[in-house]
Amino acid sequence: MQGASHMLLEEPLRLASVLAPAKPKVFPSLTKIVGTLGPKSHSVEVIQECLTAGMSVARFDFSWMDAAYHQETLDNLRKAAQNVKKLCPVMLDTLGPEIQVHNSTGEPIELKAGNHVIITPDISKAPSAEILPIKFADLAKAVKKGDTLFMGQYLFTGSETTSVWLEVVETSGENVNCLVKNTATLAGHLFTLHASQVHISLPTLSEYDKQVISTWGSRNSVDIISLSHTRSAEDVRELKTFLQSHDLPDTQIYAKIENSEGLDHFDEILKEADGIIISRGDLGIDLPPENVFMFQKTAIHKCNLEGKPVIVTRVVDSMIDNLRPTRAEATDVANAVLDGSDGILLGAETLRGLYPVDAVSTVGRICAEAETVYNQPLLFKKVMWHVGDPMPHEESVASAAVGSAIKVKAAAIVVFTFSGRAARLVSKYRPTMPVLAVIFPREGSDPSKWRSYGTNQARQCFAVRGVYPLMGSTDEAETGGLTKEEYGIKLALNYGRSVGIVKPFDRVIIFEKIGDSSVVKIVECEG
Q: Is the pTM higher than 0.90?
């Protein structure tokens, strides 16, 4: 029986089944978890635990700390990934057009509701409860009376004691006079200012971002760049051109939608980007609270129809300080899965939270449970309708592979691919079982090296729902004289058995491209 439009429930749904202890999962959720690495997840040991708990993507947030610190963290990630024998993509998160207040003394600044505070571009002024200097000269030109500003060290945590709402009263020259709407204490050396539904004349790709990408990013061959505050398709095109010119042609771009401008141009951005991140922190400020859920559901649905990965942020903020999420947060994670999200992004929860490993494992368990009632048939039909007739050959075969896998209750779908595109195409039809993508290196590349083409494509697949990449080989010493197909199937089935996906007599669907054709076949595992 179909319950909510994106949820399938068996009839009758017995309360006893909900109250029964959850069965231990032998494999991570199909929904991917992005973990932001920082002070509480910096060591090899903690990163290793996060990977084991289900973290699929490691995010490096360059809005804080320097390249040397992030390099040390990345080196630790590589050691941890090697220890647990897992690939893990690196996501570089840009700073973007962020307006910052530098509190040079680090002393707390207490702002009282009803008082006034001046925001000024004169950075020679010391920050205080009366005046806050920013590194942006044109704020007074951008805002008008009645506009809303938001400021805090950790923006959008939902705690109004650490962040402040300001209402613009008037502008005077380059200064902006604001009314303080709530009492709050701003702590730390750095605060961020967000102007709600106001165009800020700063480039989306800042000079700082370019410097980081051209040095740290290029040196480490980052897999994904999260383009903060994406406002137009041109922002994505500009970054693509920059990546091409800095020897990063294979790096994917995930457009981070976090303001009303990005929302207005969402369709064009979606066409240009490799994936989307719905950054609900800033969106929660730019949009009325009653509209946030509608944008999330609409944006995820559009991404699903196009087969582009979509990741949702800000789900378990309370786990920064607590071992368990709130009831609302647990439900929020599940709803993101039921909406069709490819992944959940953990920010402060893993960066500076007290329980980074528990945050990963808890979110993973919620995702896995939600996946058991995900309405795959409904999404399948909608994607088929969206693609239309006549279907392109690859779409037809990918959808057939998923349909066949569900009909024969296959344990997994094995996909052979060079670029990862075939695996993403299969994932588009949301199979209910894992997709094991055997990625073969292009001729001339060395899969043993971190930077090789094949390894880049394999790591990037970890951001896609249900896809688990395996590095294939064309070296006869490794293939043992088997054909490419025989070797690929053996590699996938051995991995499937080792992690508990595939058991004796299970059926597995094989999807591969032979010449200009794509074929699907069923293989039964040996007893």
A: yes
